[in-house]
Structures are given as structure tokens and as C-alpha cells.
Amino acid sequence: MVPADRSFYITTPIFYPSDVPHIGHGYTEVAADVLSRWHRQAGDDTWSLTGTDEHGQKMLRTATANDMGPREWADKLVQESWIPLLETLDIANDDFIRTTQPRHEQGVAAFIQKLYDTGFIEAGDYEGFYCVGCEEYKQTSELVTGTGKYDGELVCAIHSIPVELLKERNYFFRMSRFTDRLLALYEERPDFVQPDSARNEVVQFVKQGLDDLSISRSTFDWGVPVPWDTKHVVYVWFDALLNYVTAVGFDGDEATLNRRWPATHLVGKDILRFHAVIWPAMLMAAGLEVPKQVFAHGWLLVGGEKMSKSKLTGIAPNQITDVFGSDAFRYYFLRAIPFGQDGSFSWEDLAARYQAELANGFGNLASRVIAMLTRYRGGVLPAPGEASERDLGIRETVRRAAVEADLAIERMAPHEAVAAIWTIVEELNGYITLEEPWALAKDPEQAGRLDSVLATAAEGLRALAVLLSPVLPKATAKLWTALGAEPALGLLLDQRLRAAGDWGKLPAGTTVQALEPLFPRIDPEVLNA
């Protein structure tokens, strides 16, 4: 077992709110939420951060196109789209940071001033191809020839829009000085960047040598002013990366910073280099500890295309939750896609898994056990008799699943954690089929055996409710209530996950209640609409 009572600080990227969120954003939020809920319920000192990145040229242009100022535009999008996303997906984040908040802007100014004072920032000229969508200067190797209305033009390979040739007098972060230190970091801590494919990409990139990084802009004013030269604003990525420390006390609350930092960063692989190269170099320059880990998950693909509003593959999370519910959204994306790899989304696969795994697998198991306790024992949990080999097999399945799931969470593999827990669902369904409690109930001489079967099944459900609560918070809360567990054991969220596999916690005499369907039947006409 992993030791309890440790610090676990996890972050999502802070998202550009210049458009509404799609399921790719939801995927990242859910993954971070499941990991943080698990650690929190395991007893670790947990903090989960998400937020929005509101500065930069892209936000300014989008706001202008909508006849609004950038602050007004950001406020509207955050309140109408990004906060509701968290509510739609049952995200239990501890903090939401906006880069327009004073706590962040003050921290950015203090950080960049520190680097300037210590000689890590100098003035210089820069000319290059700039992608407004990425808010980044691009190498020619990162550009492709456009097609359609951009035929013959150089376009960004990610956004498929033309780049702009810019020449500016900027301030530069002397990132080139950190090439060797970064390579030493990757060598000494192989798990610093994961999965391995992401680590290999970063190592090969840094081995080519690093250039200094332009970190200011003077052609627009929507950003944090450079403290010693207010004609410039801080480059949006340099600004945004600092949210991970400004949110936990940098430049104002050293005790909180020491308690929370370093963090585990979840990022999409398209922003890996910012987090695994630029960000640790910035921290090294400031004399701060580098992150605990940078984990790059894969892309969600629809029809072979990366999820993207600009390419019309964006699907709003509520399009799924309105039909299947938030628990199904959370389960599907962590069950169907190996974390760290690209994964294809399809409505057909989602509907099939909902029916087979959630409704018929877990939901039907829970309703059958509650119904049999009500029918055969008046809704009161009986004391088990001597355990049979099958009973002991269920106990071992539960014990092993709890251990394996916790270890999977520790190595950032929530899909493996869900798979380990699901063995309990499968084994319990098979156990009930083999034991045939409906047949035992007809034979008075088998009353003791029926008690053992019902007690074993109920205790298995107790373990499932605890282990699945980070993934399926709504369904497990309903099951916990139906099991009558709260009066005897306390609130579901107070149950320690690393002790979930300990057997025999639900006491005999516990009274169960009616259980509403955990995953209701969905009208086929809705699915085919």
C-alpha cells in the first residue's frame, strides 16, 4: 500500500476561454478530478487547481471581434461556460485561478522582476513566424503549406491558420543556459516527464540545444506589464505557467507554497514543451523547486481528427451528460482510453459501454442485491456463516482490487485503476449466478448459506461504493444510502480508500433502503437522434 498523509497537488492546464469548452477539456478536468478525489479520500493532503488563461493577443482579438473589451469578454466566458463545465462534470476542484486576478498578476510581476535582477532576462531583437492561436513563435519545421482559402501560405500545423511574420524589440529569458541542467533532470528523474513517449520527445528536443525565449510583447497591451518597462507586457505563456505557484502562495504566503508545491501537472501533449522545458527552466532560474511530474495525456479524436473547435470536431460535454449523465461521462473517458495515449470517441461505443458495463454490469448488480436483501431478509443485513471457498474468493478479489487500483493511481494510470475495481463487479455478478440465492431462499435448510451469500454481496457493494466514489460520485452516493451504510460507517467521502479492501466493515443488522436505478434505461430514439 502507498503511505497515507502525503501532499498531493495536481493541476490542469489553465484553458483559453476564448471559445466554449469541448469534451477534450472535460477529459482533462475529469482525469485530474478523479486523481485528486482518490488522493483526498485516501487521506493525502490534497489540492486541485484549474482555471483560465485570459491574457494575450488571441483573447484581445477575439474580444474585439465580439465588440467587447478583453476583461468583459473573459468575465462573460468564464461565468457562462467554464464555471458551468465544472458543475456539469461534478468537478470538486479546490481552487479556480484566473490570470486576470490580482494575486496572479502581482506574482508574475514579482517573479519576472526577480529573474531580471539576477541577470536571467536581457533585451534583444527577434524576428520570426508567430501563430496567434498557439501564442507562440514557430520554427519552419512546425509549419505546413496551407490548402483551400490558405492555399500556398505557411500555416500552423496545429491550428491550420496562417502565421504572421513579426519583428519586435523584446526581453528574453536566457533559457539557453539551462540545457545541461534540464538534461540532468531528465536523467536523474526518469518519471519527471511521462509517459515514456513524452519523455523521449522532450529529451530529444532539449539535446538539440535551447534558444533564449522572447518573453515580452510591445505591439499590444493586454497582459501583465513588465515592471521595469511598462511599454511591454509579459508573454502570455510565461505569464500563464506561473499560475501553478501564484495560486498557492508565491510572493505572499510562503507557508502555503511550502505545503503545496511541487505539483503534478496534467497537460495535453501539444503543450508538453512549455511545461517540461520552459517551466522547469523558469523555476531553476528563480531558485524554486521544479514540479513533481509533468504527465502528457493523449488527444481525443473524432473521425481521426484531434478534438478542436476550429476544425469543427468539438463536442460540448453537456451533449453527453444531458443524455447519459455526468457519471457516465467520467467513467467512459477513463475506462475506454488508456491514459497517456490518443483515444477515439464514438457515440456508439459510449452507448454500448453505458448499457453493458454501467447499467447491466454495476447498476443491475446493485439493484439485485438490494432487492434480494429486501425480499429474503426484510431489508436487514444478516450475519454471515462460515465462509466458503467462493466467499473467500470474493474477499480476495476485493482486497486485490483495492491494492492494484491504488498503485495504478500512483503511477498515473486511472484507466488501470477502474479496470482493477471492475473485477469486483464481474466477480460478484458471477458469484450470484453460481450461488443462486433465489434457489437457496426456497430451502429453509439453506438459510445460513443464504445469509452468507447476501452478506458477501452486500459487503462487496460496500467496497465498490468506496472504490468507485472518485469516478462515479452520484451513483455511489445513491448506493451508499441504499446500503444503509452512513449510520454505521459515516459519510461515503470519509471512507479511507486504502482501507476499502478490508473485509467485514458493513455490520449485520444494517437496514437497507430502496435503490433508484443508478443508470436508467435510455430511450433508443434518443440514442438514434
Give the secondary structure arrangement, pairings included:
Elements: E1 7-15, H1 23-41, E2 45-52, H2 57-65, H3 70-88, E3 95-98, H4 102-117, E4 121-131, E5 136-138, E6 143-145, E7 154-156, E8 164-173, H5 179-188, E9 193-194, H6 196-207, E10 213-214, E11 216-217, E12 225-226, E13 229-234, H7 236-241, H8 243-246, H9 254-260, E14 264-268, H10 272-286, E15 293-297, E16 300-302, E17 305-306, H11 317-324, H12 326-335, E18 343-344, H13 347-377, H14 389-410, H15 414-435, H16 437-440, H17 447-468, H18 473-482, H19 485-489, H20 524-527
Parallel strand pairs: 1-2, 1-14, 2-3, 9-15, 14-15, 16-18
Antiparallel strand pairs: 4-5, 4-8, 6-7, 8-10, 11-13, 12-13, 16-17
Helix pairs in contact: 2-3, 5-6, 11-12, 13-17, 14-15, 14-17, 15-17, 17-18
**What class would the helix/strand composition place it in?**
alpha/beta
> Span between N and C termini?
47 Å
Number of strands: 18
Mean pLDDT: 93
Helix count? 20
Record the strand order, biggest sheet: 3-2-1-14-15-9
The share of residues in helices is: 40-55%
Motif ('KMSKS' region): 306-310
Organism: Amnibacterium soli
GO molecular function, one term: ligase activity
Subcellular location: Cytoplasm
